[in-house]
Design brief:
The complex is a heterodimer of chains A (about 220) and B (about 325).
Chain A (H helix, E strand, L loop, with lengths): L4 H18 L1 H9 L3 H28 L5 H14 L2 H11 L4 H6 L4 H17 L4 H27 L8 H22 L4 H24 L1
Helix pairs in contact in A: 1-10, 2-8, 3-4, 3-5, 3-7, 3-8, 7-10, 8-9, 8-10
Chain B lengths: L8 H6 L5 E6 L4 E6 L9 H16 L6 E6 L4 E3 L4 H9 L3 H20 L6 E6 L2 E3 L1 H6 L4 E5 L3 E3 L13 H9 L1 H10 L2 E3 H6 L5 E3 L4 H12 L3 H14 L4 H15 L4 H18 L6 H11 L1 H7 L9
Parallel strand pairs in B: 2-3, 3-5, 4-6, 5-7, 6-8, 7-10
Antiparallel strand pairs in B: 1-2, 8-9
The chains are: A mainly alpha (about 220), B alpha/beta (about 325).
Chain lengths: ~220, ~325
């Protein structure tokens, strides 16, 4: 009998999620926000992750075999929905004092480069379906932690409305439906090696996002 | 008194745990579990997994452990209850299966406590800080519940349109009666140790710093008459039975209700989670204070109680 994969993924990667949530600097950021230079740095790193998100999903969609076509269609839809979201990050950067040209010139941190590289490698060489692990981690961070984090940032930097937090804040509510869609698609994954690869990707993504959030 | 067979002890004590620490007293055959889920002390999946492993180990070695003691190593917090971030994740994902699984794992832990006397184990818990929701539920099946005076507890779930689904109703009704269960669960209020003692949910309140001595005294009092005490406690369970099936029925209702929580409810849950993070970061202000603010924010609460200042409730 086959079992649903989503509960298994939750259970097998919960430690990695909790390590993100419980990292000292992330606890502090969710509780009290962060100083302006750190938040600027974080947005610059997020810009890189968001900019590469769709190309990674596209790479995965192009490489997966036809027996995973439903996952490929999921990626098509997701790519469309996420398209242009890097501009939201750019708007937030401008709102907190970083011009678009400075943002484009910024070099990503090594951890960010490593994470982006890992996700391209997953799509290219490891297991294209495992890019769902990257999607899962970013959805979890947005939909579970995005709301409290954007509130803390607004309070600590005295930002009004969604100015400066439009990317993080809006994803907290936008991604509500995304999580349910993602659960549905993950539950269709039956192949044990694909499940293994998704868990591995999830753990690596949580690990590197934790490093990025805690290092900026 | 015959000496217990200690051959199973090395296995029990040598497992590597991340969120609990075990201490053994061979004189009293007492196993103490110190929980330490840092920085936010709650019933995470991993912590529950570790606790469950210990309880299974005890059950598999009858006669080895005669006293089970639980305390928290996190200053100021016994347990915040459920893993709120996980709840938000599962509710947003509308994942009925995982929520149900989580709830049932919680029920299995409290059911072990409920059956401890039949396994030959007397259970004692010391609460030295805040304990909320599932944290309080986990305390209630213990045979001896000790609170230090500054500890506070309650079932805040109703404030975000949920309810405590892992034994709160059954155990509160048995210990304190129907009216108290109604009052506590439907109000979402927090209670001081003395208030809980007056409601018969806590067996002993001691001054801050006296908890360790109270544990020692409890075990030393029970130990010489352990067999009779456990038999009496089994008879108590028979006289006022709590059925596993009814606990499961309630946790399944909790699952169904959780999936109906709205964005507003989830925002309140997130506020509470953020307050827990503040407390974990060293702030005095934590989840308990946030709940008090919820209450003051709630016109319904004010209309019902006529009280606008939390301090006056003490």
């Amino acid at each position: 009998m086959t079992t649903s994969f989503f509960p298994e993924l939750i259970s097998r990667t919960d430690e990695a999620r909790r390590s993100f949530e419980n990292h000292e600097r992330i606890v502090q950021a969710v509780a009290d926000g962060m100083p302006l230079p750190r938040y600027q740095r974080l947005l610059l790193e997020l810009y890189q992750l968001v900019w590469h998100f769709n190309p990674i999903c596209a790479a995965a969609a192009s490489r997966m075999s036809d027996d995973s076509r439903h996952v490929r269609y999921f990626f098509y839809k997701h790519i469309e929905e996420e398209s242009g979201h890097e501009r939201w990050v750019m708007d937030d950067l401008e709102a907190v004092g970083v011009s678009a040209s400075d943002a484009r010139k910024s070099r990503p941190m090594a951890d960010t480069q490593a994470l982006v590289g890992f996700n391209y490698w997953t799509a290219d060489r490891r297991e294209p379906v495992a890019v769902l692990g990257m999607v899962y981690v970013l959805e979890v961070i947005a939909s579970v932690y995005g709301g409290p984090f954007s509130t803390a940032i607004k309070e600590s930097l005295l930002l009004s409305g969604d100015r400066g937090v439009s990317f993080i804040g809006s994803h907290a509510s936008l991604d509500t439906k995304h999580m349910a869609d993602l659960r549905d698609i993950l539950n269709t994954v039956q192949d044990e090696s694909k499940r293994e690869a998704i868990c591995e990707s999830t753990i690596v993504n949580f690990d590197f996002v934790t490093r990025i959030f805690s290092t900026v | 008194m015959s000496q217990p067979d200690l051959s199973g002890l090395p296995g029990l004590l040598s497992r590597p745990y991340k969120y609990i620490r075990l201490e053994w007293s061979s004189e009293l055959s007492a196993l103490r579990v110190r929980t330490c889920v840092t920085p936010i002390q709650c019933y995470s999946l991993s912590a529950m997994g570790e606790l469950n492993r210990v309880l299974m180990d005890i059950a598999e070695r009858p006669g080895l452990v005669k006293h089970f003691v639980m305390t928290s190593d996190v200053p100021g917090v016994f347990n915040f209850g459920g893993d709120l971030a996980l709840f938000v994740l599962l509710i947003r994902a509308q994942d009925h299966e995982s929520l149900k699984l989580y709830g049932r794992r919680c029920v299995d832990l409290i059911w072990w406590m409920e059956c401890a006397a039949s396994l030959g184990v007397h259970t004692t818990v010391l609460v030295q800080g805040d304990t909320l929701g599932g944290g309080l539920e986990s305390v209630m099946p213990f045979h001896k519940v000790i609170f230090e005076r500054s500890a506070q507890a309650g079932f805040p779930e109703v404030l975000f349109n949920s309810f405590p689904g892992m034994g709160a109703w059954s155990f509160t009704i048995r210990k304190a009666g129907f009216a108290i269960a109604n009052e506590m669960i439907l109000s979402g209020r927090l209670y001081t140790a003395d208030q809980l003692y007056r409601r018969q949910l806590v067996d002993l309140v001691v001054d801050d710093g006296q908890g360790e001595e109270a544990i020692e005294q409890t075990i030393r009092t029970v130990h010489p008459r352990l067999r009779g005490t456990l038999a009496a406690l089994q008879a108590r369970s028979a006289a006022a039975p709590i059925r596993y099936e009814s606990l499961i029925e309630i946790v399944d209702l909790w699952t169904e209700n959780s999936l109906l929580l709205t964005e507003r409810d989830l925002r309140l849950m997130e506020r509470l989670a953020r307050a827990q993070a503040r407390k974990a970061g060293g702030a005095y202000d934590g989840a308990v204070e946030e709940i008090k603010r919820f209450e003051l924010d709630s016109a319904w609460g004010e209309e019902r109680t006529g009280i606008t200042e939390w301090a006056t409730l003490s």
